[in-house]
């Protein structure tokens, strides 16, 4: 990768983003660590002098524009972009408020597009660069009660695939990362944002929430769920490889479930996942 030296990591205040920022700083990159929580970013900077905190709220379009202007005005242009910021909202499609759905698309999809657009001109001019989009295993299939979040990650997969073809002629490589279940703050945040779903839903849906919750819970019995380091290592591999793969998957259940999705046709996978998530044959 030679002289590629400036990296941007969004969602860098915790989890996968924080671990990725540390690894890139350790490899000699100047890392712009972007997130809402400036105190967390300052903590990162105290560990690595080459980390530059940049506060941004990716749910606010005006703040995203300010951030993008700062990125496109850098003296040393961005050569590595890790679009990691994102969050999940849970609930049956009928239960997700339109505003909540809009906000998760703003952070997970529209801001990703905008930040990528801000970094691409300099990469094109340099005829090199790397864009790593953190998707999810649910970018290829949804769990019940995660349809809106999965829809954002399906969008990230499509954007990644199109961008990969569009910018390859300029020497820019584009990679998707598909984490499975990973031990970070992600799940706590999702639970907090989603709130008490059972209290709010129509009684019709309660058996679905209960059955799918119990079945998905069973997948974790005696399981060791890896921390964010596993995914940060994959991101670093994608950054450093001379010929990175189109996509990398890792962490708990990702390879098993993605493998099943790839092997089965739509009807067979629907039947298999309905069984796996406790909803096969359920009548309410």
Calculate Rg over CA atoms: 19 Å
What is the H-and-E element order? EHEHEHEHEHEHHHHEHH
Number of helices: 11
State the major sheet.
Answer: 7 strands, parallel
Helix-and-strand structural type = alpha/beta
Précis, in short:
With 284 residues, the protein is an alpha/beta fold.
How is this structure best described in words?
- The chain is of the alpha/beta class and 284 residues long.
- Helix content is 50%, strand content 13%.
- The protein contains 11 helices and 7 strands.
- It has helices spanning 15-26, 38-47, 61-72, 98-126, 147-167, 186-194, 197-200, 206-218, 229-240, 254-263, 266-276, and strands spanning 6-10, 30-35, 51-55, 80-83, 129-134, 172-179, 247-250.
- Strands 3-2-1-4-5-6-7 form a 7-stranded parallel sheet, sandwiched between helices.
- Strand 5, helix 5 (147-167) and strand 6 (172-179) form a beta-alpha-beta unit.
- It is globular, with a radius of gyration of 19 Å.
- The protein starts with 5 loop residues before the first strand and ends in an 8-residue tail after the last helix.
- The mean pLDDT is 94.
């Amino acid at each position: 990768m030679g002289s590629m030296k400036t990296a941007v990591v969004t969602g860098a205040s915790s989890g996968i983003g924080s671990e990725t920022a540390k690894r890139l700083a350790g490899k000699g990159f100047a890392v712009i660590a972007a997130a809402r929580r400036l105190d967390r970013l300052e903590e990162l900077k105290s560990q690595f002098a080459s980390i530059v905190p940049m506060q941004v709220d990716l749910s606010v379009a005006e703040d995203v524009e300010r951030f993008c202007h700062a990125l496109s005005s850098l003296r040393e242009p961005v050569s590595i972009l890790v679009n990691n910021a994102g969050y999940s909202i849970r609930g049956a499609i009928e239960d997700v408020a339109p505003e909540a759905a809009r906000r998760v698309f703003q952070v997970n999809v529209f801001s990703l597009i905008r930040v990528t657009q801000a970094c691409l001109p300099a990469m094109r001019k340099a005829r090199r660069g790397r864009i790593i989009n953190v998707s999810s295993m649910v970018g290829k299939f949804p769990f019940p009660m995660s349809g809106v979040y999965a829809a954002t990650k399906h969008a990230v997969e499509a954007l990644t695939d199109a961008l990969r073809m569009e910018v390859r002629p300029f020497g820019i490589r584009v990679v998707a990362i598909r984490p499975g279940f990973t031990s970070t703050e992600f799940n706590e945040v999702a639970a907090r944002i989603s709130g008490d779903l059972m209290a709010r839903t129509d009684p019709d849906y309660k058996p679905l929430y209960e059955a799918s919750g119990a079945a998905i819970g069973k997948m974790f019995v005696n399981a060791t769920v890896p921390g964010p380091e596993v995914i940060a290592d994959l991101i670093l591999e994608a950054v450093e490889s001379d010929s990175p793969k189109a996509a990398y998957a890792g962490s708990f259940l990702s390879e098993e479930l993605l493998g099943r999705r790839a092997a089965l046709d739509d009807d067979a996978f629907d039947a298999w996942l309905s069984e796996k998530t406790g909803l096969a044959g359920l009548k309410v």
